[in-house]
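Figure 6 in text form: structure in, sequence out.
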């Protein structure tokens, strides 16, 4: 991002925040910290996704986290999601981390290792979130029952991933060797 473009964006952000706070002072529009921080999270997410699209793939992780948190808090501010205390909405942080790993995989599909923590964190966070919102009963029992029966599936998936990674690494090294042999 060049200097002129970043100054333009920062100036526009200040104008929007100042106008919103002025409207709040005039009692025309409710605009305070509770309304600002989800938007800041979404702006950070958009900037991170922009950086990831321009080549800095690791910033996609933070974009995914801030997008989930910004969306959650924005929906909470509009009463689409109930206003929970921290002890009830902490699973959103697990979901945000999981989505961060999944988005990192989307921007770098060769790094399949991001799928495992992404799916695990998103799944467990989703179960805990559903339990804290009382949408499913006994989420802990559901997780325990699932894990006690299907935990060997994790070993099978890990083995498949290691084999696929080994085959891909072997294929990549063979293609690099062919390219270096053709240059000589």
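Output sequence:
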């Amino acid at each position: 991002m060049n200097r002129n473009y970043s100054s333009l964006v920062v100036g526009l952000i200040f104008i929007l925040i100042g106008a919103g706070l002025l409207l709040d002072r005039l009692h025309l529009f409710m605009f305070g910290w509770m309304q600002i921080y989800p938007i800041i999270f979404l702006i950070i997410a958009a900037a991170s996704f922009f950086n990831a699209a321009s080549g800095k793939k690791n910033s996609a992780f933070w974009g995914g986290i801030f997008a989930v948190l910004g969306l959650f808090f924005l929906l909470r501010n509009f009463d689409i999601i109930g206003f929970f205390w921290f002890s009830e909405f902490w699973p959103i942080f697990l979901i945000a981390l999981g989505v961060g790993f999944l988005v990192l995989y989307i921007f770098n599909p060769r790094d399949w290792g991001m799928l495992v923590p992404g799916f695990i964190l998103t799944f467990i966070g989703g179960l805990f979130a559903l339990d804290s919102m009382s949408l499913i009963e006994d989420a802990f029992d559901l997780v325990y029952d699932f894990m006690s029966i299907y935990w060997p599936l994790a070993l099978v998936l890990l083995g498949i991933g290691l084999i696929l990674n080994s085959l891909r690494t072997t294929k990549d090294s063979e293609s690099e060797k062919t390219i270096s042999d053709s240059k000589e």
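Caption detail: Residues 1-31 form one domain.
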